[in-house]
Amino acid sequence: MNTQVALITGASRGLGRALATGLAREGLALIIDARNAAALQQTAAQLRAAGGTVTAISGDVTDPAHRAALLAAVQTAGRLDLLVNNAGTLGASPLPALADYPAADLRTAFEANVIAPIALIQLMLPLLRASGGAVLNITSDAAREAYAGWGGYGAAKAALEQASNVLAAEELAVRVWWADPGDLRTDMHQQAFPGQDISDRPRPESVVPAFVRLISQRLPGGRYRAADLMPAVHS
Amino acid sequence: MLIDVAAPADHDLADHDLADRERADHYLADFVLPAEREAHDPPEARGLARDGVRLLVSRRASGEVSHHAFADLPGLLLPGDLLVVNTTGTLPAQVRAAGGLAVHFSTARPDGSWLVELRQVKDKISRPNGHGHPGQVIPLPAGASLTLLNRATARLWRARLSVAVVPYLLRHGLPIRYSYVRRDWPLSFYQTVFAARPGSAEMPSASRPFTPEVVTALATRGVLIAPLTLHCGVSSLEAGEDPYPELYDVPPATARLVNHVRASGGRVIAAGTTVVRALETAARADGQVAAAAGWTAHVVTPQTGVRAVDGLLTGLHEPRSSHLRMLAAFAGPELLARCYAEAISSGYLWHEFGDVHLLLP
Fold it and tell me: Partners of B160 in the beta sheet?
């Protein structure tokens, strides 16, 4: 059997890096990207040191040329079984009220959190269909709850959720999941709460078993919360 | 207690009574299906419950053929047996166009195109339409258009619809119906109790008789049930034409359960030929099943054999259909021919609204 291949965006830190580590441990070959080339190479080196097969391509998912480079890497790998749209942006920091939200920041949030993932899905769909593969879009409870200050990010994630929902209805051959990891101790979360102590939030590694379960058990398409997917603990 | 078991009838045939086998093959290729053996309406229209259809049971080990009601199924299976069901949902896969043209959407392909069959509706009956040419654009309701790309088989075109196919069908399609069914029935008549993922051009009809009561009785009996998905394409193939690739998905939990049940001495019973196709695609030579998904072109015949499935619940099939070769892989041609002769003489009904047949080891 050929090794399964996953493409994970935004994998240099936080949840993306934790997912990459977890999926490499499951034996998937990885193609990863991030904007920060140095941080990405460091993550790639760590994954390889642990025995992973990793192709790292730095760039911004909102850049069509970078997306084309990701497609080329996938074509070189010969197959794609999983696309994880994890890369995202908070928008403005500190989080402004919608009344004051700079339109440019709003546009950036939608570009990175909605347009880029959809564009990447469009590029990868033929390969994903051919392998009976899956798309995992990382979302947030800010897509559903009215948290003050999260209007830009939350509206963009809500759009990504509905795009996922429609994609699942349109695509017979591809599983589509959209999953809320919960609040995590990540750089993005710190940006949302600048200067605050977020050390009470769990580390991103803590939710990886939930995502591994979702992916390795190929659960039916739909919306999930990592908290609901945590595997049973046998003592 | 030791039970003295008579030598299975099949062992007598292991020496190959070739004449018998040839006679059986000949029968299966040539039997005549009398018009009165066709189910023209759903059982509900004949005053029956869904689970009120008849169930023919054949047992390969003993060569025994017996007659039951479908609702007897739980008692015919054993605690620890695993029934694998297809969770595909039936799409209203027929779209009517101008000039009596009907398009049957059969199967999605990786590039986003679909296999479609063009049919001509005349006197409320649709027949194959031999026309069409590459590049032809067929206008469909609500402003959609279908572009024919190239012929995929004698009957099927590869074609591209201008909008997403599944949501379009759900809004503008009708269930596919062939001439032996006398009128259109609502989509609900074409859904099985297990339907969860819309994607089939035609109903996986072996599962049609299942009702919540039968499923509950199976669970109570200790029969296990596990899902997989295979989206069925159109069945209107030319005689002798192999089925084309279909989309399938055997999830990890089902693969593990199949292996566990067989290792424990239980039997894996497929609810429908689609389930056999999916499981046999996912089976290795040693009979172990691994999770798998994608398109399968696997065709089960007596030559390929069955590696991971012990029994099959299925409808009654037409002469020469490729399904009969799959059934022969389970029952052997002699027993299968006897079943079909008995089904005809005993008044069983054929097609998707008809009776069903359980082939046990």
Answer: B147
Q: Give the containing element (helix H, strand E) for A180.
A: strand A175-180
Which of B214, B237, B203 has its CA nearest to residue B351? B203
**Is B112 within 8 Å of chain A by CB?**
yes
At A194, the pLDDT band (50, 70, 90 cuts) reads: confident
CATH code assigned at A112: 3.40.50.720
- Residue B5 is predicted with a pLDDT of 35
CB contact under 8 A, B111 and A169: no
Task: Report the distance separating Cα B111 and Cα A127, nearest Å.
Answer: 9
Structure tokens at A170: 């349109």
| pLDDT grade for B3, boundaries at 50, 70 and 90 | very low
Structural domain boundaries enclosing A131: 5-229
- Inform me whether the C-beta atom of residue B233 falls under 8 Å from chain A C-beta atoms: no
Count of pairs with CB atoms under 8 A, one residue in A, one in B? 54
Contact: A217, B110; criterion CB under 8 Å: no
Contact criterion met (CB < 8 Å) for B252 and A217: yes
Residue A184 falls within a domain, yes or no?
yes
Task: Determine contact: B4 vs chain A, CB below 8 A.
Answer: no
Query: Which domains, ranges and CATH numbers included, belong to chain B?
Result: 26-90+187-360 (3.40.1780.10), 94-172 (no CATH)
Residue A234 lies in a domain: no
A153 catalytic? Reply is: yes
Could you say which of A101, A147, A153, A224 is catalytic? A153
pLDDT of B4 over the 50 cut: no
Nearest CB partner across the interface for A216, out of B248, B252, B295 = B252
CA A37 – CA B345 distance, rounded (Å): 76
Q: Which tokens in the block code for residue B310? A: 């012990």
Structure tokens of A24?
């490499």
Q: How far, in Å, CA of B168 to CA of A170, rounded?
A: 9
From the list A170, A173, A219, the residue facing B247 with the nearest CB is A173
What is the model's pLDDT at position B14? 47
Q: What angle do CA B124, B127, B131 make, to 5 degrees?
A: 125
A148 belongs to a structural domain:
yes
Q: What is the mean pLDDT of residues B157-165?
A: 96
Task: Say if B290 is an interface residue toward chain A (CB within 8 Å).
Answer: yes
| A197: in domain | yes
Find how far residue B151's CA is from the centre of its chain.
25
CA A70, A74, A80, A82 torsion-angle sign: negative
Please name the residue of chain B whose CA is at the shortest distance from the CA of residue A132.
Answer: B294
> Distance between CA B42 and CA B151 in Å, rounded?
34
Mean pLDDT score of chain A: 95
Global confidence as pTM:
0.89
Which positions ≥6 away from B42 have C-beta within 8 Å? B185, B189, B353
Partners of residue B289 in chain A, C-beta under 8 Å: none
Quote the number of domains for chain A.
1
**Residue B183, class by beta-carbon neighbours within 10 Å (0-12 exposed, 13-18 middle, 19+ buried)?**
exposed
Q: Which residue has the higher pLDDT, A183 or B127?
A: A183
